[in-house]
Every structure is written in structure tokens, then in C-alpha cells.
Amino acid sequence: MPDTLKNDLYLRALMREPTERTPVWVMRQAGRYLPEYLATRKRAGDFMTLCSTPELACEVTLQPLDRFNLDAAILFSDILTIPDAMGLGLRFEAGEGPIFDKPVRSRADIEALPVPDPSDELRYVTDAVSLIRRELNGRVPLIGFSGSPWTLAVYMVEGRGTKDFAKVKGLMFSEPDLMHQLLAKTTDAVIAYLNAQVAAGAQSLMVFDTWGGVLSPAAYREFSLAYMQRIVDGLTPEADGRRVPVVLFTKNGGAWLDAMADTGCDGLGVDWTTDLHDARKRTGDRVALQGNLDPSVLYGSPESIRTEVRRVLDSYGDGPGHVFNLGHGIHQHVNPDHLAVMVDAVREFSQKD
């Protein structure tokens, strides 16, 4: 029998059902701003060992829930697990971020890419999902996730982080058919990966399109949104007798929220550059909205944090369908006490009479 959720506010909000208050969680809520996370990572020895050891991934996933009154847990992993499982040689260098030793640059490279089997090469992720779900014991829902095909392709082609996107955009413009071949294969991998997370116990899904915002409107629709549409269409719609809602998030994608809502997803992440009132007006209450406090607000005073929390809640307005979050991931050097101020303010200000 599936566990009974003691707190299902997050799932109800994504389905735009009435909730007694606005649920809240935070992107990167298990991460480097927490001293307990740093201690576990030191014990692991390196980041990929932390990600690929289910017991450690479970431990850090639960850490923020023990410290803050959050309404969802998100699997601790990395968006680059899929290309790593494709054999591209992922490593992390201090001060450099992720690096692939075998970037994808040619037709032969792309044709040689395997679609990883989630029950084999990515078994450590699904094992972590199962363990986290068991340890949560219905405390809050568990969110699974993946990077979007376009975002994964950026890293796969560039081989590392980039500021000008020269190699990936060069491929996109010079050989669009080849880029579509890479995106199609990556999309197949993402669908299998996310469905495996649902089978293992994930109760909601999120697709992080970190780099969709660097594209022109036409290129975004062709090379990013079209493949997220395929993902939405290919996902397991229900588990444990209830819908598994999916949220799409494109950083700097405020101009395309209406088109994103057309995919049939259940929710959209909104970064802090778009007002929630405008986002809600443009999407016509077809989807829930998640966000969208500027992460840098958490560097401010407790009073200023409370003021900005109220501003975000007011910008969404009355009615169901809002999940409070930052507009992107929490910053590494934020004081954890300031996140507690934010979470408590959301709970206080949004409580229905």
C-alpha cells in the first residue's frame, strides 16, 4: 500500500485545488548553504560520490526538511546524470564546475550515444528515490527532476559551462538536423529517466530548462519547447491513485509562459524577472505557478525578507494554484536563518482564516 501523505499541499496547489495556505519549497534546498550538507559532502569525498550513493543522497535530501517547515522534498541529484550515463566522462573541477571529457561535436558522436537504461546505468538515482520516499513516510511529497533536452545538449556540446554558447549554437545554426537528432535522443532518455523516477516513488516532476532563455523566440520553440512538449506527452500521468503533476521551468523564459502552458503541463516555474500577476494573466489560470522571490532577497534583513515575501504573495493574488519558491536556486552563501524567515513568513501571510 502506498504511504498516506500527511501534507499534500504542494500536490493540491499544482492541481489548482484550494489549500489552507500557500505551500513552499526552495530550488537547491539541499545544498552548500547548509553546514550539515557540507559535512555530508566532505564525508562522501566528492560531489559525484554524494549523488551516486543512495544513502547519502537520501541524507542530504532530508536535511532541509529537518531544519525548515517545507512542503516538499526534491531528490538530491544533478541534471547531468543522463549525459554522464551516456559515457561522456563527467567530472567536477573546483572553480570550473562540470566538465565532460568527451563532448559531442559530430554526427558520429551523436549516433554513437546510447540511451541509458534507468534500471542499469542510472539505478543509483532510482534507488535513491525509493529510499527517500520510504524515509519520508508520507511527511511531504517527493519531487523528481531532470534537465531539459536543450539544457543537457548545451553541456554535452560545449563540454563545460559557457558564456557565449558558441559551439552549441554553431551546431544549431549550421546543422539543425544534427541538433534535432541529439535533442530527440536526449528526450527519449529524459522520458525514460523521469518515468523510472515515478515508478520508484517520485510524486511530482520538474524539468529544468536552465539555458532556454539564451535562445531567440523562434529557436526556443523549435529547439527547447518542442522537446519539453514531447516529455510532457510521454510521462506517466498517475501513480498511487493520483496525478503526478509536472512543472516546466525555463530560466529567463517569462516571454514564453503562455506557449509553455500550452504543453499541457500542470505548473510553470517563474523566475524573478516576471511579475506573477502578469504571468497569471497570460496563462489564464491554465496552470499553477511556482515562484518567484529573487534569491538575493535572502541576503537582506529579516524585515526586508518578510516585505518581499508579502510582495510576491500579493502579486499572485487570491485563488488557488500558487507554490511559493525562489525564482532560481538558493545561493551558496545565504544564511540558513534567513531562509527560515522566508518560509515562516510564507506560512504566516498565506494562512487562510
Question: Could you walk me through the main structural features you see in this protein, from its secondary elements to its overall organization?
Answer:
- Strands 1-4-5-8-9-10-11 form a seven-stranded parallel sheet.
- It has one domain: TIM Barrel.
- It starts with 8 loop residues before the first helix and ends with a helix.
- The protein has 353 residues and is α/β, with parallel strands linked by helices.
- Helix 12 (257-261) links the parallel strand 8 and strand 9 (267-269).
- The protein is 47% helix and 11% strand.
- Helix 2 (35-44) packs antiparallel against helix 4 (54-67) and helix 13 (276-283) runs parallel beside helix 14 (302-316).
- It contains 15 helices and eleven strands.
- The longest helix is centred in the middle third of the chain and has 25 residues, at 176-200.
List the helices and strands and how they pair.
Layout: H1 9-14, H2 35-44, H3 47-52, H4 54-67, E1 73-74, H5 81-85, E2 90-93, E3 97-100, H6 107-112, H7 123-136, E4 142-147, H8 149-158, H9 166-174, H10 176-200, E5 204-209, H11 217-234, E6 238-239, E7 242-243, E8 246-250, H12 257-261, E9 267-269, H13 276-283, E10 288-290, H14 302-316, E11 322-323, H15 336-350
Parallel strand pairs: 1-4, 4-5, 5-8, 8-9, 9-10, 10-11
Antiparallel strand pairs: 2-3, 6-7
Helix pairs in contact: 2-4, 4-7, 7-10, 8-9, 8-10, 9-10, 10-11, 13-14, 14-15
